[in-house]
Amino acid sequence: MHPTTQLLQEARDRVTFPIQELTKLIYGNEETYQTFMKAQKIIANEPSIRNHPDYHNWGRKEQIIKSYEKIRIMHQHFNLSNAAHWAPLLSLFQGTTPSAVSFGMTVPALRFLGTDEQFNLWGPKFLTMEIVAAYAQTEIGHGSDVQNLETTATYNTQTNDFILHTPSVSAVKFWPGELGFLSNYALVYAKLIFNGKNKGVHPFMVQIRDNSTHKPLKGVAVGDIGPKLGYSTKDNGFLAFDNYRIPLNSLLARYVRIENGQFSRHGNEKISYASMMVSRQLIIFIYPRMAAQSLTVAIRYSITRQQFTNDKGVENSVLEYQTQQDKLLPRLATCYGMIFVGLRIMELVDDNFHRVLKKDFSTFQQSHAILSALKAWSSQWVVDTAEWCRLSCGGHGYAHYSGIPAIYFDTAPNVTLEGENQVMYLQVARYLLKVLQYVEKNPEKVPFYFNFVLHIKETLANQSTEYGQLLKLTLTIQLINVAKRIKESMGTGKNFQQVWNEVVGVQLLSVAQRYAEYFTYLVFQEQIQSANSSVKEILQQLCDLYSLQVILDNPNTLIESGRINGEQFKQLNEAKIELLNKIKPQALGLVEAFNFNDNALRTCIGCHDGKPYEHIYEWTTKENSVNIKGVPQAVNDLMGTKIKARL
């Protein structure tokens, strides 16, 4: 057996739990798992769409065109209107997935904000991709501040239609994905002007390109905004209107409408945030699985990569070093927590939407707060994990052939898009303070995943150093402290907005993140309780390592409050080292439970056969188009100039 292959096989032999039992938990249900496995197989076996070693030598246009070809072929195999079918593709393709915005944001918005007649008019055309529609909300001058968008849709009483207009450069729609080339429609968010009065921002379904030629329609300026950090194949675009007329039924009219010359509202306007909730749940559900890809590569490579001899004169696998374990194993533990959170979030959001369709908004605010917290925390964590995995692979981690740099680039935008993370955290903090106010007068209003506020006295009195208790204690103390600080600051003459913006901002961000960490712990424990007995032990070890790492990363609250002393802090560190030792022999099984094939990993250093060096050399010599095309003429021209250096 090949030496490095043998190292990987020996590591597989050391795994003591049934890997398939974890795989079942990771994918949640059989349909999602089988769809994922089918997609992996199709992409790997279809030469025209399989991931290509030379991909990062291609130009951006070539990458974009290839992504369209991929989605066309996949559309023949899957129902891309079903999130269970297309969502897994986001982690399998090189580059981003075309139509993800259209299916993931615009279709849900149409379903929840449009009338049944409007959905029946446009919905079927999305399924056949006769319509691909960008979600055109963000403007050059306005991102998270939706209420101050400048684009206007003015109702014309004489013609019974709207005039859509971009009044300034700062009002140009900017950044919407799939707007640059692909979309022929856009869901445009604009201020509705009725009888000279601003009726707020509302969505309009607008055709922007000709159905036959795909050229922009008269009165529409649209195109691609250019290269970015990550998302190279996503055609983020700009869109401007010059007094562009659109019909009355362009206004999505389930909750607002114009009839007989009268403007009226119906139902709860909060539903307008529904489509953003869908995109955030997908970020939470999909992208930790891309972190799982980077961890799979890094841990396999850390087993096959040997550096420096031990006392027996044999080179050690890099994973044998405690420092390497410290880079990777706590992140592997957290990855499991993140994946479980993604599954739970899908259930919570699905339940919320079914309620909303029945005009029941009882879980809407809770869902929004949880989504905001976990979108912010998970998106940053995924980017950080890709970076740490890259660093853990040494020099080869820097190369695109490792598969890891692309994961970093394709996940980095999530920190900002669909809700900038600091803004998300501030919304979570606002809800936490609101829930805290329920305790005395309306305790029945406190939702399940926030019920820690109902047990503040017990939490503060509990002297246990059990990890879940310490996470809850940290969250509780920080929430009490920020509420107290707000009250005291307002007593000095500052108004609430001044205190919020100028006094407690850093505390608000911290308490929101502590909530995300505690929520992840709660969901982790739920999964352990429902898991097969054969994997409960390893899952508990992962949960303990996750919890310990969170506590050790942010111990200030516990130390400053006197809840843990130096000796206890030392014991926590020792407990972490003990867990690293227990989890290390299981590490390969834990990443192989994700069940990515080599094509999906897009790597030559983390392949299943454990031959990183052979694959590196093969990709470099046989797949690198820079080498294949021979010596560029510019090199000969340069070498022939006999330049005299100036010293």
Structure in words:
The chain is of the alpha+beta class. Helices cover 55% and strands 10% of the residues. The protein has 25 helices and 13 strands. The protein has helices at residues 3-14, 19-27, 30-45, 60-77, 83-86, 100-113, 116-127, 274-304, 322-357, 364-392, 394-398, 404-411, 421-441, 456-461, 467-490, 496-502, 505-530, 533-553, 556-560, 566-583, 587-592, 598-601, 612-623, 625-628, 633-639, and strands at residues 133-136, 152-156, 161-165, 173-174, 185-194, 197-207, 220-224, 237-241, 244-247, 256-259, 262-265, 306-309, 315-317. The strands form 4 sheets. Strands 1, 2, 3, 5, 6 and 9 form a 6-stranded mixed β-sheet that branches. A 3-stranded antiparallel β-sheet has the order 4-8-7, with no helix packed on it. The chain has a two-stranded antiparallel ribbon with strand order 10-11. It is globular and about 90 Å long. It starts with a helix and ends in an 8-residue tail after the last helix. The mean pLDDT is 91.
Brief summary of the model shown:
The chain has 647 residues and is α+β, with helices and mostly antiparallel strands.
Topology:
Blueprint: H1 3-14, H2 19-27, H3 30-45, H4 60-77, H5 83-86, H6 100-113, H7 116-127, E1 133-136, E2 152-156, E3 161-165, E4 173-174, E5 185-194, E6 197-207, E7 220-224, E8 237-241, E9 244-247, E10 256-259, E11 262-265, H8 274-304, E12 306-309, E13 315-317, H9 322-357, H10 364-392, H11 394-398, H12 404-411, H13 421-441, H14 456-461, H15 467-490, H16 496-502, H17 505-530, H18 533-553, H19 556-560, H20 566-583, H21 587-592, H22 598-601, H23 612-623, H24 625-628, H25 633-639
Parallel strand pairs: 1-5, 2-5
Antiparallel strand pairs: 2-3, 3-9, 4-8, 5-6, 7-8, 10-11, 12-13
Helix pairs in contact: 6-7, 6-8, 8-9, 8-10, 9-10, 9-17, 9-18, 10-12, 10-13, 10-17, 13-17, 15-17, 15-18, 17-18, 18-20
Subcellular location: Peroxisome
Main location: other
Family: Belongs to the acyl-CoA oxidase family.
